[in-house]
Specification:
The structure is a single chain. The strands form 2 sheets. Strands 1, 2, 3, 4, 5, 6 and 8 form a 7-stranded mixed β-sheet that branches. Strands 9-10-7-11 form a 4-stranded antiparallel β-sheet, covered by helices on one side. Helix 8 packs across helix 9 (235-246). The chain is 33% helix and 27% strand. The chain is built from 9 helices and 11 strands. The radius of gyration is 19 Å and the shape is globular. Residues 1-10 have low confidence and may be disordered. It has 2 domains: 12-163, 2-Layer Sandwich (Ribosomal Protein S5, domain 2); 170-278, Alpha-Beta Plaits (2-Layer Sandwich). By secondary structure, it is α+β, with helices and mostly antiparallel strands. Residues 73-149 form the GHMP kinase N-terminal domain.
Length: 290
């Protein structure tokens, strides 16, 4: 049975956001995906999903974000694929309360899908490997959210190496008033050119720097290949980045963009009193590989 890692409270599920502490993008592959090398980290910002049984077959969905129940909705895809690939018919009512901004590079949609899959895996006793295979069909970073915590992602992000959890570093988030579509961000990067070979040495060195609380080394090694091209294409992001640098608190470690944008984050040490959010461990405290 899958280690679901879903927090439940009378049908309440929490779908946590992620940061990319390191994100390098390689060339486009034959399948049109890009090679990635990233260091994922879940944080304490979350969407809420209220799930309950209903007597009528099918899924009744609603959201405070006016999301349609269609293939563009990651929860729709999770439920549809679960039914198709496991043979289980769903009788559910789902309400989504969005807290993670869409198009912000925090993985909200992917986390929502993974959280529903974990719930269904537990409810219908479906094994972890089957759920992992379903998650890959929904999105590249959906598999990561099945456990969360700290992990290095390779391939298109679905090949995961879960690591010992990092201390509870503190984080402030900055939300420029703009949504960045991932496909467009990749287009910008392709026009600029991507590296032919991704060297994973630095991502492991960065992880060690976090463990050692070597803040200068963290600043030196952390990167996001999308940051420059996306901020140049969106003045709103560039403006917020400049403002963040100019207003850094004394104990701030760095400012970085997460994913393909648009969210920026300020990173603080674990002992800092700054930062509204914190790093989270893997679900159930386990960081073993899927």
């Amino acid at each position: 049975m899958v280690e679901t890692g879903v927090e439940r409270n009378n049908g309440l599920l929490k779908a946590y956001a992620k940061l990319n502490l390191y994100l390098a993008v390689g060339p486009k592959r034959d399948d049109s995906f890009h090679e990635l090398l990233t260091l994922f980290q879940t944080i304490s910002l979350y969407d809420e999903l209220f799930v309950e049984d209903r007597p009528i077959p099918g899924v009744l969905f609603d959201s405070d974000a006016n999301l349609k129940w269609s293939p563009e909705n990651t929860i729709y895809r999770a439920c549809e694929l679960f039914e198709q690939l496991t043979g289980n018919r769903l009788y559910l009512r789902i309400f989504l309360r969005k807290r993670i901004p869409s198009g912000g590079g925090l993985g909200g949609g992917s986390s929502d899908a993974a959280t529903i899959l974990s719930f269904l895996a537990s409810k219908y006793r479906v094994d972890a490997k089957a759920i992992y295979e379903i998650s890959k069909k929904i999105g590249s970073d959906v598999p990561f959210f099945l456990k969360g915590g700290t992990a290095i992602g390779k391939g298109r992000g679905e090949i995961l190496e879960y690591l010992k959890g990092l201390s509870e570093y503190r984080v402030s988030l900055i939300f420029p008033n703009v949504s960045v579509q991932t496909a467009y961000a990749y287009k910008l990067l392709d026009e600029r050119g991507t590296k032919k070979i991704l060297d994973d040495g630095n991502v492991y060195k960065l992880y060690e720097a976090f463990l050692e609380k070597n803040y200068n080394r963290i600043r030196e090694l952390s990167k996001n290949d999308f940051e420059k091209v996306v901020s140049e294409a969106f003045p709103e992001i560039k403006g917020k980045y400049v403002e963040a640098i100019e207003s850094l608190k004394e104990d701030a470690i760095m400012v970085r963009m997460s994913g393909s944008g648009s969210t920026l984050f300020m990173l603080y040490p674990p002992e800092s009193k700054n930062g509204e959010y914190s790093f989270l461990p893997a679900i159930g405290g386990k960081n073993d590989d899927l």
